[in-house]
């Protein structure tokens, strides 16, 4: 059996791994977009390492673009096999691929290149895509494949592949054993080789249990001061987690009722997928299932407004504070949140709450860093950021809550490996930057007595 690292090697994005069995049959696990400063990095414009027509099937761990974003390009380059994922992953993928088509074409134009695919390729790709449940075994070209819950986002999976008498597990992006909304990740008992997500290989996350109390405090304070609470949030998973927590806080009277807006067409479409699967206990955690059984629509509460159209979005301005606005993008790199930030960042009664990691260079990071600097200087003086070409003074409170990560931290990653450590021959560290991998590599060697490997891009390994 030969394994080749097409992406996700010494980098977080571009997840893609090729397996070729002794009979020469090939399958691909994920086919993600390489992302960085650009949504679609230059690397994506290079041809695939081998003829995509020779690949029998693609197995998809989950719907984030850095795991699915090149599948329509694979189709365009001749792939005609089947694509398999869990049902929510397929639904999310269709929405996210269509949503990303515009930015792909804009960026391709900037680079003077043709787009890597067009709408027609997405439509044809979706025709090849089959839905499979967790633990439904798929046999194809001498491989046997099984999806396990990865607890990262709704429908996310780790994929166990058996072939040539060997067992290889691809973690996908791994979440926590216990999560606030979706069902926690499963353990896998036996594997000879594991590829593990090392996005947060060096870190230990902030305590998850406190975050809801912190969220409650932030809401209460902003309502009390009569301001606007702005929450830049990623459309997939983070928005639904916040809605689920808000649902509980509002319906149990822990926070006063004020208008809450989800001002993101993408988040609204993706929330509809969560609602679609919310009847199925395999996807959600016990508390969420209990609420659902009791008849609570967990993403719906009084005074919640989903603003799909631009017209509806503009009407938010006319609603008097206090109010809560959740919108994309999660790092304030674009999207409707910018309009609200421009309007309310200069307001000292308002607040902006960050619930995700803010990458260097993003507007979100500039707001966070600016606020830290202003506070450290002991100066009450505010600072400013540029939005739509205008200098906007930041007088609103700047807040951040950790503990909302949907990636496992170092102890949780080691735990996942521990359940299969007896049979493990090698662990390949993927989806991470080298500075995150080093500390995880040491712990795997020292604590689990298993050989860790940090593969290079395009590296081939015989298993
Ligand atoms: Zn992911």
What features would you describe in this structure?
With 463 residues, this protein is of the alpha/beta class. The chain has 2 domains: 2-203 and 405-462, 4-Layer Sandwich (Metallo-beta-lactamase, Chain A); 208-400, 3-Layer(aba) Sandwich (Rossmann fold), CATH 3.40.50.10890. It has helices at 65-68, 71-76, 87-111, 119-127, 211-224, 238-251, 265-277, 286-293, 310-315, 337-344, 363-376, 410-418, 434-448, and strands at residues 2-7, 16-20, 26-29, 55-59, 82-85, 129-131, 138-140, 143-149, 157-163, 166-170, 193-197, 228-232, 260-262, 304-306, 323-327, 351-354, 383-387, 390-394, 397-400, 426-430, 451-453, 460-462. The longest helix has 25 residues, at 87-111. The N and C termini lie close together (5 Å). Bound molecules: zinc ion. The site of zinc ion has 4 residues, from loops.
């Amino acid at each position: 059996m030969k394994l080749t690292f097409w992406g996700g090697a010494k980098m977080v994005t571009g997840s893609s791994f090729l397996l070729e069995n002794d009979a020469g049959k090939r399958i691909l696990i994920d086919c993600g977009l390489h992302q960085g400063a650009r949504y679609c990095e230059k690397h994506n414009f290079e041809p695939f390492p081998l003829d995509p027509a020779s690949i029998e099937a693609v197995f998809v761990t989950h719907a984030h673009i850095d795991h699915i974003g090149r599948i329509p390009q694979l189709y365009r380059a001749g792939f005609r096999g089947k694509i398999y994922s869990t049902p929510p992953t397929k639904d999310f993928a269709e929405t996210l691929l269509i949503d990303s088509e515009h930015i792909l074409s804009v960026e391709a134009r900037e680079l003077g290149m043709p787009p890597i695919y067009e709408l027609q390729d997405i439509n044809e790709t979706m025709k090849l895509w089959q839905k499979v449940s967790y633990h439904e075994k798929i046999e194809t070209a001498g491989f046997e494949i099984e999806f396990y819950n990865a607890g990262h986002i709704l429908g996310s999976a780790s994929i166990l592949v058996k072939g040539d008498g060997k067992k290889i597990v691809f973690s996908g992006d791994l979440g926590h054993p216990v999560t606030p909304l979706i069902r926690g990740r499963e353990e896998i008992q036996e594997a000879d080789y594991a590829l593990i997500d090392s996005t947060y290989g060096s870190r230990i996350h902030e305590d998850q249990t406190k975050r809801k109390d912190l969220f409650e405090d932030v809401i209460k304070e902003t309502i009390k001061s009569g301001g606007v609470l702005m929450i830049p949030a990623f459309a997939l998973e983070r928005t639904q987690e916040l809605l689920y927590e808000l649902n509980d806080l509002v319906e149990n009277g822990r926070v006063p009722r004020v208008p809450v807006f989800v001002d993101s067409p993408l988040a609204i479409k993706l929330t509809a997928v969560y609602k679609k699967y919310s009847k199925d206990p395999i996807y959600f955690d016990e508390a969420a299932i209990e609420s659902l059984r009791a008849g609570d629509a967990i993403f719906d509460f009084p005074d919640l407004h989903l603003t799909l159209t631009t017209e509806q979005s503009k009407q938010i301005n006319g609603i008097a504070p206090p109010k809560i606005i959740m919108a994309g993008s999660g790092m304030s790199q674009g999207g409707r949140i910018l309009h609200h930030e421009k309007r309310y960042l200069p307001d000292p009664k308002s607040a902006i709450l960050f619930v995700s990691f803010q990458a260097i260079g993003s507007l979100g990071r500039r707001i966070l860093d600016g606020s830290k600097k202003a506070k450290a200087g002991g100066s009450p003086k505010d600072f400013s950021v540029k939005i739509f070409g205008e200098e906007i003074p930041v007088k609103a409170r700047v807040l951040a809550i950790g503990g909302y990560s949907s990636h496992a931290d170092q102890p949780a990653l080691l735990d996942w490996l521990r359940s299969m450590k007896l049979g493990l021959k090698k662990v390949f560290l993927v989806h991470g930057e080298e500075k995150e991998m080093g500390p995880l590599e040491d712990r795997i060697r020292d604590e689990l007595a298993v050989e860790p490997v940090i593969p290079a891009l395009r590296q081939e390994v015989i298993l």
